[in-house]
Amino acid sequence: MDMARISALSAALPPTSLEQRELAGLLPSGHPGREVLHRIVAGSGIARRRMAVDPRVEDVSRWSTAVRMRRFQEEGLPLARRAVADALSEAGVAPDGVGMLCLVSSTGYGTPGVDSRLVRDLGMSQSTQRLAVGHMGCFAALPGLAACVDFVACHRRPAVLLNLELSSLHVQPPPWDTEQFVINSLFGDAAVAMVVEHGGGRPGPVVLDRASHTAHEYEEHMTWEVGDEGFRMGLSAKIPDLIAARLPDLVDDLLRPHGLASRDVGWWAVHPGGRRIIDAAEECLALPPEATAASRRVLEEYGNCSSAGLPLVMAERQRADPLPPGRHGVAMTFGPGLTLYTALLRGT
Fold it and tell me: d(Cα 169, Cα 333) in Å, to the nearest integer?
């Protein structure tokens, strides 16, 4: 495969920051779930999350799906513009030089929508190809990246990957059981853009390979269903253990064809799906604590941002501890299906 490298990453975040300690105070006085929510928040590893819709001001929980989708377009486009414009500027790529724009989102859809309006607003060519990857959940960043890598390898023109997730639009109506308390306290909003280019030039990780596994037998443990009142998630407490049971074999499948083993990898980017998910990846792969430190920082500051979560981790790692030239790294995501997805990177 011709070399395709990630030459820039840039994030844009909503202005509203919600401290986790505020959550219990948003419940009605005397709510029976207050203590349960306190315990969930205390063990979440999350300090705050960014929200496109401030729950202290607006109650999303009763909105129809149609209203939520309209709000996605209104809130998402400014974030998308900022993330993509900053990434293109960092990479030194002119908007009219972009060959493909890939929009990944599991939290909002519309046509015409964010992708076509982004082409218009940023001055991309009207011949820019567009691809929308929808409703794959938290693991979708890597399939989206794979599509960009394949485009760049084939056409040798830059591609932009945009992960735009506004999970705050999908708070479900009460009453909330423990599972919904976990979900309501876990997810945050973000837009992250990557520029993928061909060949040399600006340093950045080269994407060498991908490997995935869909465990159909566990599909009911993580679901993301479209309802009349937004999208409803199902999230089993067994997910970390199920990931840990399959992840070592999948990483081996990724590395073996390249003559590599886990001990040859010194740079890891783990999807910040939750504290226990990061713990499970660290333990089953026998990773040192520093390998998952960036994932824990992202989780603490932003929560689980669905498909934008892994790109946030990759941006954090590249900022603080870039993948060294010639060394290998592994990125991994997990989502509905139950699906595990990995990518092999090499520094340039």
Answer: 22
Are 185 and 37 a contacting pair, CB within 8 Å? yes
| Range of lowest pLDDT (187-196, 199-208, 253-262) | 199-208
Radius of gyration of the chain (CA): 19
What does the block give as tokens for 104?
Answer: 């990944």
Question: In the predicted model, what is the mean pLDDT of residues 200-204?
Answer: 77
Most distant CA pair in the chain, distance: 61
Q: What residues contact residue 121 under an 8 Å CB cut-off, 6+ apart?
A: 77, 81
Helix (H) or strand (E) holding 9: strand 4-12
* DSSP label at residue 58: -
Distance of alpha carbon 76 from alpha carbon 190, whole angstroms: 9
- 325 cis-preceded (ω within 30 degrees of 0): no
Domains of the chain: 4-198 (3.40.47.10), 206-346 (3.40.47.10)
Which range among 170-179, 230-239, 244-253 shows the weakest confidence by mean pLDDT?
170-179
Nearest of 184, 174, 19, 156 to residue 97 by alpha carbon: 156
Do 204 and 7 contact (CB within 8 A), yes or no?
yes
Interaxial angle between packed helices 141-155 and 309-320, expressed in degrees from 0 to 180 and rounded to the nearest 10: 70
Return the ∠ at Cα 278 (arms to 72 and 17), rounded to 5°: 40
Q: What share of residues in the chain are helix, strand, coil (percent, to 5)? A: 45, 25, 30
Cα–chain center distance at 327? 24
In tens, the pLDDT along 87-144 reads 999 999 999 999 999 999 999 999 999 999 999 999 999 999 999 999 999 999 999 9
Q: Estimate to the nearest angstrom the gap between the alpha carbon of 313 and the chain centroid.
A: 9
Cα 243 to its chain centre, rounded Å, is 17
Residue 176: pLDDT band with limits 50, 70, 90: confident
